[in-house]
Amino acid sequence: MIKKRYADRRDWNRIKQRHYVQEQVENEVFQGQVTLLQLIEVASPLDVKYGDETIRIADAGYVWVQQFPSDAHYAVTSMFDASGQLVQTYIDICLRTGMENGRVYWDDLFLDLIALPSGEVLLVDADELEAAQEQETVSQADYALAWAEAKQIQNQLQDGSFPLVAHAEVMKRQLEQQLKQGTPR
Question: Taking the model in full, what pTM does it have?
């Protein structure tokens, strides 16, 4: 079953205290919804392991900037540590993004890309997409869409032409300013 996921991460019990803001953005690089999630207090940090490298992606003081381009089949989450350094960019390939009861969501198509600051790009969860296709959880058309979208974004990440990694830094500054002015949710 395709899972609907929400940008505010309200259902993630790891986050004990948060600040959250979302905004419709239209500029020369991007059109769509952008959210900022500040992790104020967490039950425990979250570390992920890629090969021999372990990266912390969630802890107190971390900030996640999520970009949901209109009419695209992906959502981009850029994760920054407490000192403001980018630790990874996670790209969920999705069937659609949208708004539901004021909440930004995406319908996850299982396949994901991870771009590390080192320049390394990882394609992950292909096994989940394969299983979903075999179980007919995703149609053949959605399966093909997921692979085509992932390959295109992977190529752009590798050649440096994917603009939303740098755009996340711009949006982080803008939305943090908005939070300072007293509009967290």
Answer: 0.95
